[in-house]
Request: fold
Amino acid sequence: MERVTLRFYEELNDFLPSHRRKRDFEIAFELPRSVKDLIESLGTPHVEVDLILVNGVSVGFDHIVGNGDRISVYPVFESLDIAGVTRLRPAPLRVPRFVLDVHLHVLTRRLRMLGFDAWWNNHAEDDELARCSVREKRILLTRDLGLLKRSVVTRGLFVRATDPENQIIEILDRLDLYDRIRPFARCIRCNGAIFPIRDPEAVRDEIDASVPVGVRNWCTEYRRCEACGRFYWKGSHYARMLEAVRRIRRARAAARTRLRSG
Ligand SMILES: [Zn+2]
Reply:
């Protein structure tokens, strides 16, 4: 029997039973095992892990653990200072591009509303989601642990929250994306990029056909999705979108205050 001591940090504890959270614990096993295999057998998908220290030394997922090893497992946590050690990600996760599973449509729309590139398809199977994540270097967002444990997937996050309002805050917080919010950059319907229309008169017929007359009466500035052609303007939905962003920022500030005082 081999015996090792493990400790999981920060939100990786979410995947552990309460008696193993935020403390050292020992496990015993028989066959030689990679550290990835060991970590996943305890419930944590490898995509959530950004750094593994074995006896204080940074190792890769394929490292074979030895008897008596002390293993520290750290999450994908952008503000954690781990300068000087090897991270497991092939590239930083800061590139905020996403692929979401079929159950996360509302979260997808929220992300697009804030300007993030979020791929979603109502009919996408797990294989396709995994391939899309790898091929396009997108962060896979899902509440399906099995999907995140696929070894081809190297970028992904298990979404803890079930309510879409909390989900968007969770993602912004965990990846520290607040400074990357760009309202009016992505089409909420199709994820295409949105551009200002330089000369509205050149597309006047199309504007007349698809923009309500109550808007056309006052609006002189339009944007358009390059993919599906949908028009966007700074009307009441824009005000609602800005209000949603403000709400998210307020929630974040409140959470930080709670952390400081608690
Ligand atoms: Zn579009």
Summary: The helical segments are 35-41, 105-113, 126-135, 145-148, 164-174, 204-210, 213-216, 236-261. The two ends are 42 Å apart (CA to CA).
